Amino acid sequence: MKSRSIRVLSRALTRPALVPPQSQSHAAAPTSQGQTQTRAHRQPQQQRPYSTHPPNARLNLPTDYGTTPLLAHSSQTALTNPELPAEARNGTTKRMNLFQAVNDALSIALAEDESVMIFGEDIAFGGVFRCTSKLADTYGAERVFNTPLTEQGIMGFAIGVAAEGMRPVAEIQFADYVYPAFDQLVNEAAKFRYRDGACGRSVGGLTVRMPCGGVGHGALYHSQSPESLFTHIPGLRVVMPRSPVQAKGLLLAAIRSNDPVVFMEPKILYRAAVEQVPTMPYTLPLSKAEVLKEGSDVTVISYGQPLYKCMAAIEQMEKTAGVKVELIDLRTIYPWDKETVFASVRKTGRCIVVHEAPVNAGVGAEIAAAIQEDAETFVRMEAPVMRVAGWSIHTPLLYETFNVPDVARIYKSIYKIMGF
Amino acid sequence: MKRTCLSGLSPLTATRRVAQKSPLLVLPVKTSASQGRRSTGSLSQRPDAKHVSFPGAVKSAFCNTMRFEEPSTYPALSTYRAVDQHGEAVDPDFKPDLSDEAVVKLYRDMLTVSIMDLIMFDAQRQGRLSFYMVSAGEEAVSVGTASALEKEDVIFCQYREQGVFRQRGFTLADFMNQLVANRKDPGKGRNMPVHYGSRELNIHTISSPLATQLPQASGAAYALKIQRMQDPSIPPRVVAAYFGEGAASEGDFHAALNIAATRACPVIFICRNNGYAISTPTLEQYRGDGIASRGLGYGIETIRVDGNDFWAVREATKKARELALQDGGKPVLIEAMTYRVSHHSTSDDSFAYRARVEVEDWKRRDNPIARLRKWMENKGMWDENKEKEARDAIRREVLKAFSDAEREKKPPIRGMFEDVYETLTPDLEAQMKELREHLDEFPDEYDLSDFEGGRGSLDK
């Protein structure tokens, strides 16, 4: 059992300021030319019912994807990734955004394996997010095709295709629309191998892609992050990439995996996240977390888009107070990499989980419970596990800013956990 | 001699013949709810009977020729027109049942929707709205069907039926308040633009998922039917449910028709078959004879109409409402053929998957507004001057309503926590308090100036 004195000590050691000083990037004064431009552009923007950021904000600034250390801005950074196979490391890179990286992975999969097929609503002309551009032209309408508008049909069809040994990559147009397919996923895909027993058949070839998460104005039906509904289902692997490099490597791993995979793509990153992506085929390991930044005082765990906000909050916190924060990208949300998480939390003694989905019964609950169940980790805890997540509400149009975790809320949680 | 199945024997006459030839054979062919349940005991069959009495096919005659039915050998269901594209009446039995003023009012509704659509589409392009969907080419379907319904009827829309809202009395201010999500929006700023709803007008609030509204419409219709059985002083009411041909591929569509037929629900299913579900053309959506043929499969009275013909749409809906209330209630299906002239939404560029010339051709060939206008001009109740005046006036009204709506404050942010449950749960109360404290601690990080009551709305 932890003694109170250690807690008091930890409180005394690290006490950052609650409100950070004016940040460098924001302090940059606009030029006279810049001011007139700003005015002209701000007028309509101020009337926008979404995506605003207040003029004096120091934390809640738009994510700067052009400079974030979470993306490989140079070829060299991309190719030194130790997880890459040697051929990929010795190859070239190409600048891609996330939808192009998904497209690249799909194209490689179609080219290297004729059992791969891709289908979903509106995918033939390239898909509503352009992830499947040119695939039908290149690989033919037999393997790349539009389906009628029926998610339960798409999923059941995909399961049948997979049951007969093919590798279908089914697209659900928005994660918000996956629910008609829930029965097929939960009762069929997830149970297929278990039910068949010694007969040995499975639908391991199945991958289901779906765009998820908030974009600022998606409201009730274009913003949801329903990953925890799938992480509750034994038999499904649930993956969410945070970047183009990951999207390519994890999607190829998902397609080659012999378990059904729910592959959730944060749609706000489709165009926003741009980086150098190795051109060779490669996979990144499933069920393996990535330590994005090492630190000794707090472990922040997230996946998908909130990682960028975590990073911004951590940068501010480290600047303000000498707190060293470790940031972990879960990547596969289930079955998740407990080893990496436990090792980190044993080191730091503090853990914050960040996700967009509602806090109740979310991924944060699973991680917090697992941490406190693991005796070796539990005894090292300096503070209770904290969660920064969406409130227990639906995803409202006007209030998205106040609902999804932002830099200020993550910053505050680090502050609070350090002061516990 | 071999008899070919079905030859010269429509299902209805077949039933009658059976009844005549086999007086001892009691066939429970009427299955409306008032008829009660079908008993298996009545399915006894005389030796050498010419007809099957299987529980699942009580009217089927035996035949000794093995032949598969080929859908392509059946003629496509015809498309009803009352007025042709020149504005001339083509149905000799068609008699307009509206005064000139009433027709002008409905025409203005169509015009209003079409002008509002153009302005709001541009407003989205200017960044003043996050999203918009136009209904160009489909104004007659929404306004025409709605005009044949009663105020008490209950409506479920998909999302492209602004004409239904307009016809039933949604004002331009109502549209604009929802579109800009201000404090007067009954949706409390929670929904995307065009997700209108009105309790007063008996139109349920729009939900983005497709076809989910359809089984709900069947259930709602059943509720109305039961309520009238329980209290005959309630006037007879129907439910109207709108959807596109793409939505008809969802499982919910099939469930809706089947359950409405089996429970004899007074519901009118109104399909706007506009040729496209985002990029997917009908050829990739279905291979049968449109959506109408499915109504027959579920045992539902069905009509296909020219969706560009306001009068055809209105007449069909009038009759459908009558049918839906007959025999204790029954579903009816209307398939209105139209063309989606514009992009799916402001998020879509349809020229990525269809030729510009295809759209231009359609626009030139026929248009529901132009057709009704020609009809009105032929009758001498409309002319170029009136048209210009109407268009100018509507344009001004839309712009004024838009600018008024933009000036209103946003609803209080407290609204994000409310209505999840009937009352706030302890969890939600705690979260609301946490957010309030957070906003107090970081006032510069959030712009609350637009929201009515600012942070204070989160206080108890």
TrEMBL record, chain A:
Residue intervals passing through the bilayer: none
Enzyme Commission designation: 1.2.4.4
Positions of the UniProt region annotated as Disordered: 13-67
Reactions listed under catalytic activity: N(6)-[(R)-lipoyl]-L-lysyl-[protein] + 3-methyl-2-oxobutanoate + H(+) = N(6)-[(R)-S(8)-2-methylpropanoyldihydrolipoyl]-L-lysyl-[protein] + CO2
Top-rank EC class of the record's enzyme: oxidoreductase
Family matches, as InterPro entries: THDP-binding, Transketo_C/PFOR_II, Transketolase-like_Pyr-bd, Transketolase_C
SUPFAM superfamilies on file: Thiamin diphosphate-binding fold (THDP-binding), TK C-terminal domain-like
Source taxon at top rank: Eukaryota
GO MF annotations, alphabetized: branched-chain 2-oxo acid dehydrogenase activity
Alphabetically ordered keywords of this record: Oxidoreductase
Ranges where the Transketolase-like pyrimidine-binding domain occurs: 96-272
Cofactor(s) the record lists: thiamine diphosphate
Single biological process term from Gene Ontology: response to nutrient
Compositionally biased spans, kind Polar residues: 21-54
Pfam families, A to Z: Transket_pyr, Transketolase_C
Name by which UniProt lists this protein: 3-methyl-2-oxobutanoate dehydrogenase (2-methylpropanoyl-transferring)
From TrEMBL, chain B:
Polar residues composition bias: residue spans: 31-45
Transmembrane segments: none
InterPro entries registered for this protein in UniProt: Alpha-ketoacid_DH_E1_comp, DH_E1, THDP-binding
Record has Kinase as a keyword: no
GO process terms (BP): branched-chain amino acid catabolic process
Known catalytic reactions: N(6)-[(R)-lipoyl]-L-lysyl-[protein] + 3-methyl-2-oxobutanoate + H(+) = N(6)-[(R)-S(8)-2-methylpropanoyldihydrolipoyl]-L-lysyl-[protein] + CO2
Cofactor(s) of this protein: thiamine diphosphate
Tagged with keyword Metal-binding: yes
Keywords, alphabetical: Metal-binding, Mitochondrion, Oxidoreductase, Potassium, Thiamine pyrophosphate, Transit peptide
Molecular function terms from GO: branched-chain 2-oxo acid dehydrogenase activity; metal ion binding
GO cellular component: mitochondrial matrix
Membership in a protein family: Belongs to the BCKDHA family.
Role this protein plays: The branched-chain alpha-keto dehydrogenase complex catalyzes the overall conversion of alpha-keto acids to acyl-CoA and CO(2). It contains multiple copies of three enzymatic components: branched-chain alpha-keto acid decarboxylase (E1), lipoamide acyltransferase (E2) and lipoamide dehydrogenase (E3).
Protein name, as recorded: 2-oxoisovalerate dehydrogenase subunit alpha
Species for this entry: Schizothecium vesticola
